Automatic annotation (TrEMBL):
Membrane disposition: Multi-pass membrane protein
Transmembrane regions: 7-29, 41-64, 76-96, 102-123, 182-199, 211-230, 242-262, 274-292
Keywords noted in UniProt: Cell membrane, Membrane, Transmembrane, Transmembrane helix, Transport
NCBIfam families assigned: rarD
InterPro entries tied to this protein: EamA_dom, EmrE-like, RarD
Protein's name according to its UniProt entry: EamA family transporter RarD
Gene behind this protein: rarD
UniProt keyword Transport, yes or no: yes
Lineage: Bacteria, Pseudomonadati, Pseudomonadota, Gammaproteobacteria, Pasteurellales
Every EamA domain range: 6-144
Pfam families for this protein: EamA
Protein's cellular compartments: Cell membrane
Length: 301
């Protein structure tokens, strides 16, 4: 199989698994969203160490810590702040579906690539194409309409679209390797999760007393690890523009699953907001498609 074809299938696999993982909070009731998040991170820790550690080796992780972080307290502080941001996003991902915020979080993921494009322009001075500028303008119209119609905008949407970009942009600025950075993130995030579980004996009691959790808990950790690993691998195999375009599959699945399976209500006025945001995403997809085609022509020139 050609690398690009392999990358496409891995990307589809990862995006689909992210969508399925969104439903686990509902499947694992009466555990709370926070309980499911804690179990996901602990399960992910063991699964990622089992999957990723053989790939990069413990020596690779030690080398990253020694060479990239070392004794610089500033780099450690930036890295730990990034881990905290990622942890808050992982928590929100599992908390939102069972607290009526499933659609709003999906909207946040729709807005995320638009904010990333703007963040790249501000932080790295990357030039925006005409299509990217138009996409940002349409997204701004969508947010403005929501503010006008409801006098508010969901904090969960804002937390995703404004909280995730600093994590990715700071990791890019630090040139953090994906595998090592992710493994270290999971290790740091898992520490408070173990503490939380130690002070919540009722969570353990529920898991022990109901046999369905014996399958769901390890499956959640495995799906989390496989989805992240497949996503990282596809990012290495695919051109950036094509990978960015395919990454819009996840928020689409989250939005549909939130409505179809979680039965999250949607106000009629919100559909105009979504129209503006989705129109902006369509322009970004077209921009990514043009960039990919341009790269293909250069390769075959």
């Amino acid at each position: 199989m050609q690398p690009i074809s392999k990358g496409v299938w891995l990307c589809i696999l990862s995006q689909s698994l992210f969508g399925i993982m969104y439903l686990f909070s509902a499947w694992m009731l009466p555990l709370s969203g926070t309980d499911v998040f804690v179990l996901r991170m602990i399960g992910s820790l063991f699964a990622i160490l089992a999957i990723l550690l053989p790939i990069m080796g413990l020596a690779g992780l030690k080398t990253f810590i020694r060479n990239e972080l070392g004794s610089s307290w500033k780099r450690w502080l930036i890295f730990l702040m990034g881990s905290a941001l990622a942890g808050s996003q992982f928590w929100l991902f599992m908390w939102a579906p069972v607290n009526g915020e499933g659609v709003n979080v999906a909207v946040g993921y729709f807005l995320f690539p638009l904010v990333m494009a703007f963040g790249g322009y501000l932080w790295f001075k990357e030039r925006l194409t005409l299509l990217q500028k138009m996409a940002l303008f349409l997204a701004a119209l969508g947010v403005a309409h929501e503010l006008w119609a409801t006098q508010t905008f969901s904090w969960t949407s804002l937390w995703v679209c404004l909280g995730y970009p600093p994590y990715y942009l700071s990791r890019r600025a630090m040139k953090t390797p994906a595998l090592q950075g992710l493994t270290l993130d999971i290790i740091f995030i898992s520490i408070p999760c173990f503490i939380y579980l130690a002070f919540q004996p009722n969570v353990t009691d529920i898991i022990v007393s109901d046999s369905r959790y014996w399958l769901l808990v390890p499956l959640l950790g495995l799906i989390s690890a496989v989805s992240v690993t497949a996503n990282l691998k596809s990012a290495l195999l695919l051109p950036v523009s094509l990978f960015s375009m395919m990454s819009y599959l996840e928020p689409s699945l989250l939005f549909l699953f939130a409505i179809w399976f979680l039965h999250t209500p949607v106000n009629e006025s919100a559909y105009l907001t979504y129209f503006f945001i989705w129109s902006g995403l369509l322009l970004l997809m077209l921009n990514s498609a043009y960039a990919w085609r341009a790269n293909q022509r250069l390769r075959h020139a």
